[in-house]
Amino acid sequence: MIKYNEYYTKIKAHKDSLVEVESKWSLMTALHEKRELVKKLKTMKEELMQNLQNPEGNHIKQVQEDITKLKDTIITVKESIIEKTYFLEEEKKTHEKLRKEIEVQHKRYSAILKRLHCQVNKLQSNRRQWQWNIHQLEKTAAELRKRIGMKD
Length: 152
Known about the structure:
- 93% of the residues lie in helices and 0% in strands.
- By secondary structure, it is mostly helical.
- It has three helices and no strands.
- The N and C termini lie far apart (154 Å).
């Protein structure tokens, strides 16, 4: 019996050291966490089953309240979406109107700019013509002075 006890203690010590080493492995810690999660889920399942069997259960009432709250939030979100869609359509119309007005103003200012360029070109042409005329008159005046005998 003594040998049996010694053997048993050695085996138990070996198992304990093996369990200790295994407990440090990430796989084993994950396994323990999953087992605890399964236990929690089983207890929650039992509680839910009891609540389902009891039609006056708190959980059913809470779920119904949650459903009504969700329906209310869905209705408010839908209303908000409709309101924002209407606002977006109005903004699109305003944007289109402004774009057309900008195009009209652009055409108008392009025509004004073209007219001003024409006026500038005409004035420059007139100025060159007047300068040429002045130059011709000065030449003629110089020639006439020479003929009269007047010197500058």
